[in-house]
Structure formats: C-alpha cells, structure tokens
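Field log, afternoon session.

UNIT: design team B
ACTIVITY: writing a sequence onto a fixed backbone
BACKBONE:
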C-alpha cells in the first residue's frame, strides 16, 4: 500500500472578485471614509490626497476586514467565538463589530499596549488577555490556548480579512479615478496586498507602493529574500506596523506585482504625525501616517506632479504616546531646540540671553542654570535652555545669532539632511 504524501497548504492569492463580494457584505457596516486633497500639497511638489480611514468608528481600516469576516461566517463565529491576536487595531475593530453582530471576542494584546486601548476593547464587550511583548507572542498564545479549535483564530492574513481591507482600494479609485499612485502602510501586508489587487484591477496604470518603518523592515526583507522572513521587532513610533514577519497570503498576493517598497525613517514619521495634526486637523498614529512620511522624506521623487493617494490607515494613539510623538517631531524638525550656553554671572547675564532669544521670535520652554560643577570660569554660569521656534529656517537663524554672541554655545539638535527637507 502506497503512503499518501500530504502537500503543504499553498498560500491564498487574493482575487478582485473576493474584494467585490466583501464590498457588498460590509456596505452597511463600515464608514465610507473621505478622500481629500492634503493641505501640505501647497508646500511641496506633489499632489497629495489622503484616504482618511482613521475616521472609521474604531479609528482603523482593520474594521473593514473584521466586518467582512464576521458577516461571512456569522453563524459559525456566533457559536464558537473568535480569538484576535493583535497590536491593537484589529482587536478594537473585532470588539466593536462583535458587539454589533453578537459574536464573542477574545482580544489578545501585547502587555505593552496602551491601557486605554485594552480598556476600550473591554468596554465593547471583548474578553481581553495581555501577554508577551509583540503581536507574534499574542499569536503564539492564541494558538496554544486554542489547540482544540473550539474558537476561530482571526489574523490580518486571513483571506476574508484581506478582502475586506481591499475595499479601501475600491473606494480610492471610485472617489478619484485620476489617481496615479497609492502609497499604503505595511504591517503584516494584508492592507497593501488587497489595495494592490483592487487598484490594479480598476486602473491598471495605477502605481502601488508600500511603506514601512525602517526599524522593522519585514516587507523589504521578504521581497529581497523572495519569501517571508522574520526580523527583530524594535520599539518605534509606528508600533501598529510592528509585525516581525509578513503574512504568507499577503506576500503571495504581492510578489512580483508591487511597484515599489519604501522604508521610512522614524524621524519623518514623527514629523508626519505633527503635519497631519496641525495642517489637516486629523489625529493619526505613527503607523497611519507612514505613507505620508515617505513622501515627506523625499523617497518618491518620481511622483512629483502626479496625483498620489496616501492611505491614513489608523488614528488609535493614546494621549501619552501622542505627546511623546509630538515632542519627538518638534525636535527632529528643529522646532524644539536644546542648547547649553555660558553666560556672565551678573545681573545682566541672563537678561541678554533672553533678549537674544526673543529677537529671533523664539519662545523659552525650559530654563535652568548650573554653577556648582563649572570649574573653568568662576565668572560664568551655564544656562541649559529649551526653546520653541517657528520652523527650520527660524531655528537656523537663532543658532547663527547665538553663535555670534556666544562662540562656545553647545547645541543638541537633529540636523535634517538637505535632500530630505520639505520644499
């Protein structure tokens, strides 16, 4: 008797027909988010549009994929329940849609996730489990505790979830038929794969790019290797994109079809969060603005003068992380500047320094003096100062002014490469 050899399960390559079916399923369960021209376009050589999926009810495009899976398998999921290992967005979307469709949800989140996010999941009726440090730890926990298969484990690489995410691409081409390029943030790749399928089907000339944080370049490594490979997960501003490896189904769908993959410096992601907040009046998380950050960094010069849509994939950023991101962004853009300067230790010393700062319309945010440990000059005291400036040009003018007055001034400031500056 011949032995039967079981072939390994092949990855699922997403089709446009699956996305079309998903669009019909989720029609009345998600928000058709706006696509608007970015105000930042007026300061750059690009025609940038923003697909604002951070305006979904739970603040993330993940809700589209969750809704499609929940509706397609409603009876089975209502009976068995669902486990969703996630960095946060999928868990939140599952908690909300599970509440609407009466599906029991267990959200498995890394222990480092913001307390406000896990609290929101619990308020929506999900059972919340905190485990490990990464989403991969959450996936391992879900598989371990569900060995009997009593519940359904749902990840972003599930074909039904991917199909739901593809409705982002359908809406983009419907809302802006003239779209020349779409740039998509990359976590495990489901959103990028599905958006690529939809955009290429509806407009074959449309370019589709992926964008990910340079600290966790899992899609770039996978494309270079020809298959998904694991990379170290380093804490970063774009935590929502911090998957160690791309999904097999997503990679199989993308392979050989993606126009470009962009790796974005964390500093520009912080700057993009601030720009979206100040200029567009939108709150987005670091993962959500990664596509826009790629444009700001100057990674897509070939798109100058073309209509480029940046997907704002999420806006779930807690107040503490938003505050830290804003300060980081202000620092790397020169709008917060820190320096130490020796000033004469007499009644006019600090007054002259304050006047020098005010002359350049900068604002003192923090100020302290140090004299005890200064041994070189008993007639001086060191002032440690943090000031806020209007922009990079203002910061450079202040630096030059202070250097003329105080030749030994010491600056601690991020210097932006000329080729990356916004025009």
């Amino acid at each position: 008797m011949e032995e039967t050899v079981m072939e390994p399960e092949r990855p699922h390559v997403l089709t446009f027909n699956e996305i079309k079916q998903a669009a019909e399923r989720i029609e009345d369960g998600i928000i058709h988010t706006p696509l608007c021209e970015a105000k930042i376009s007026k300061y750059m050589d690009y025609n940038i549009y923003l697909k604002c999926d951070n305006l979904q009810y739970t603040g993330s495009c993940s809700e589209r994929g969750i809704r499609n899976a929940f509706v397609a398998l409603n009876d089975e999921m209502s009976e068995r329940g669902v486990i969703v290992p996630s960095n946060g967005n999928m868990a939140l979307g599952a908690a909300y849609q599970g509440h609407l469709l009466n599906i029991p949800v267990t959200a498995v989140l890394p222990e480092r996730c913001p307390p406000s996010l896990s609290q929101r999941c619990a308020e929506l009726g999900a059972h919340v489990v905190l485990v490990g440090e990464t989403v991969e730890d959450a996936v391992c926990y879900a598989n371990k505790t569900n060995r009997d298969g009593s519940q359904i484990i749902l990840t972003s690489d599930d074909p039904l979830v991917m199909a739901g995410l593809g409705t982002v691409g359908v809406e983009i081409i419907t809302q802006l038929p003239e779209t020349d390029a779409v740039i998509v943030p990359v976590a495990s790749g489901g959103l990028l794969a599905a958006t690529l399928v939809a955009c290429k089907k509806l407009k074959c000339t449309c370019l589709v790019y992926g964008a990910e944080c340079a600290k966790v370049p899992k899609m770039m490594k996978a494309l270079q290797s020809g298959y998904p490979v694991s990379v170290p997960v380093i804490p970063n501003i774009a935590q929502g994109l911090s998957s160690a490896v791309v999904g097999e189904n997503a990679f199989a769908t993308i392979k050989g079809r993606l126009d470009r993959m962009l790796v974005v410096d964390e500093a520009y992601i912080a700057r993009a969060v601030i720009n979206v907040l100040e200029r567009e009046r939108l709150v987005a998380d670091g993962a959500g603005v990664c596509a826009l950050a790629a444009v700001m960094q100057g990674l897509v010069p070939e798109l100058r003068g073309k209509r480029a849509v940046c997907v704002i994939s999420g806006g779930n950023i807690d107040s503490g992380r938003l505050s830290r991101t804003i300060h980081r962004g202000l620092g790397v853009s020169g709008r917060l500047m820190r320096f130490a300067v020796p000033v004469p230790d007499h009644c006019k010393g600090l007054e002259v320094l304050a006047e020098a700062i005010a002359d350049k319309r900068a604002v003192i945010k923090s100020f302290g003096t140090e004299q005890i440990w200064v041994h070189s000059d008993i007639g001086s005291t060191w002032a440690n100062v943090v000031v806020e400036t209007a922009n990079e040009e203002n910061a450079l003018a202040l630096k030059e002014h202070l250097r003329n007055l105080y030749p030994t001034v010491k600056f601690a400031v991020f210097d932006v490469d000329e080729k990356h500056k916004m025009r």
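LOG NOTE: The mean pLDDT is 88.
NEXT ACTIVITY: expression trials, pending approval
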